[in-house]
Predict the structure.
Amino acid sequence: MSREPLVHVVREAAGQAEGALILLHGRGADEHDLTSVLDTLDPERRLVGLTPGAPLPGPGGAGGRWWYMVPRVGYPDTRTFHATYAQLTSFLDAWLAERAIPWQRALIGGFSMGCVMSYATGLGPGRPSPAGILAISGFIPAVEGWQAELARRAALPVFVAHGSRDPVISVDFARDARRRLEAADLAVEYHEHEGEHHLDPRTLPLMTEWVGARRASFTA
């Protein structure tokens, strides 16, 4: 897999950026999929927004991009996961450094596969801790050679949203993530809605409030 910078879209802040908001799309989408959500979550444009595109083409000519291959839900393919993880973390570290924004002022989140990669980036062993993780309809990955490093993440804010009738990624994954994160003393805000595998519009105002509170903490 190429280690070239990922294709991406940047939404500039209205003035001097107070931090960054990074959103990772789901399976079969691309870097444009969540650009409108940046304005929803950060309507005053106090943060610079970034939406990278996954590096893998969909298997069998399927449209959109994938972050990794899927032998079984919850258990990413080892080879493609690790290749993408290395490429994504390298790209994000370099992009934030170029912007002079430390990870302590960067929020990362995503939907479905993008949620998985957000967990991986924010909780990965030896990784810098972000300001918070938005985990929408995904799971903490179980993959050989990668282990969530929770002991160093006490008090890290995590917003979890998942549909109770999700037929793609069972809500049991979100409930398990909540249990594990809370057991490690992370600051979990958990919202389970009655929908399926989608970004629930009723949850968006809660996410916007959460992002605003995280941003305010940057300058507190």
Remarks:
- The chain has a mean pLDDT of 95.
- The CA atoms of residues 8 and 52 lie 4 Å apart.
- Residues 8-218 form a domain with the Rossmann fold fold (CATH 3.40.50.1820).
